[in-house]
Amino acid sequence: MTVILNTNRRDDTLACLASLAESTYANHGIMVLDNASTDGSAAAIAAAYPDVQIIPLTANLGYAGNNNVGIVEAVAQGAEWVLVLNEDTILAPDCLVEMVRVGESDPDIGIVGPMVYHHNEPAVIQSAGGALGPHWESRHIAQNEPDAGQFPQPRAVDWISGCAILVRTAVIEQIGPLDERFFYYWEETEWCLRAGRAGWQIFHAPAAKLWHKGVQRDYRPGPNVTYYSTRNRFLMMSKHHAPLKIWLAVWLQTIRTMTSWTVKPQWREMRAHRDAMWQGALDFLRRRWGMRVA
C-alpha cells in the first residue's frame, strides 16, 4: 500500500499518481491523505483515479503524525509493505517491483529505499540512502553526484530518505509507526534507527529509480528547518541514548554556530536561523514537541 500526503499540491499529486498508474507492480493499493487542501485536490484525484482511497485529515500533525494515519490504516487493511511517498515524486514503472524484490530477498530486511534523483537533473543523485555520522549528524549518500553506476548492488545503509520509504508491516507491528513528537524532520532517520536496533536491516535498492522535486541542488532551507533539525536531533539523541561525548560535541557545535551567526557580519542574514536554533534547543530542554510555536 502506498501512502501519499497531500496539502494543496494537486498538480504534483496527480503527476505522482500518473507515474504510479504506469507501475508494473501488481496488487497495489494507493491511499491519499488530504490535509485540508483548498485547491480542489480531493475532487481532482477522485475524478482522475477513482480507485485511490482519499482520507481527509482533520488536524495538521506534521509529516510524522499525518502519515501515521495512513500507515496505521494500511496495516489494518492487511498490507504486507507500506510505502510512505512524497507527493512531489515521480517513479519509474519498475520502481516498486525493484524495491519489493530487494525487500523480499531477505526476511531480515525491514526497510527499503530507492535511488532518488533530482527531478530537474534526472541523472544526478539526491540520495543513495542515508548515513549517520560520528556525531550523529545525518547526510544523504552521494548527494549531487552524477550516477556513474557507483552503486551496482543493493546494500545496507543507516537510513532511508523520507520522500520514499518502504517498510515491512512486521516492522511497524514490532516498533510502531513514526514518532509524532518529531512533527517534521529526522522522523524517518529515527524510524530507521529504531528498526535497526530491533534487528531489522535497512537497504538501498539502486535499481529502483525515483525523481524528487524537493531539496534540489540550490535548496535553501528556512528557519523552520533549522528549528526542527536542532530540536529533533537532540530528541533522537535522547531517545537512543547517545554517549556523553556526542552530547558534548553537539552542544558545542550548536553554541559555536549560534555565536558565529551572532557576531560575524557575513552571517547577518542568518539571524533568523540563529533564533530558530536557540528556540529548538530550548524547546528540547522544555520537552516541547510537535509544531513549532513562534
Description:
It is a single chain. The protein is of the alpha/beta class and 294 residues long. It has two domains: 2-212, Spore Coat Polysaccharide Biosynthesis Protein SpsA, Chain A (Alpha-Beta Complex), CATH 3.90.550; 223-286. Helix content is 39%, strand content 22%. It contains nine helices and twelve strands. It has helices at 10-21, 41-48, 62-76, 95-104, 169-175, 187-197, 223-239, 244-263, 271-286; strands at residues 2-6, 30-34, 53-56, 81-86, 89-91, 109-118, 121-127, 130-132, 138-140, 155-156, 164-168, 201-212. Strands 1, 2, 3, 4, 5, 6, 7, 10, 11 and 12 form a ten-stranded mixed sheet that branches. Strands 8-9 form a two-stranded antiparallel sheet. It is globular, with a radius of gyration of 19 Å. The model has no long low-confidence stretch (mean pLDDT 96).
Tally of separate domains = 2
Given as residue ranges, the uncertain stretches (5+ residues, pLDDT < 50) are none
Query: How large, in whole angstroms, is the Cα Rg?
Result: 19 Å
Net shape: globular
Supply the number of helical segments: 9
Strand percentage: 15-25%
Q: What's the N-to-C terminus distance?
A: 36 Å
Instruction: Give me the CATH fold name of the largest domain.
Output: Spore Coat Polysaccharide Biosynthesis Protein SpsA, Chain A
CATH class of the largest domain: Alpha Beta
Broad structural category: alpha/beta
Biggest β-sheet strands, sense, barrel: 10 strands, mixed
* N to C succession of SSEs: EHEHEHEEHEEEEEEHHEHHH
**CATH architecture call of the largest domain:** Alpha-Beta Complex
The chain-level mean pLDDT equals 96
Strand elements, count: 12
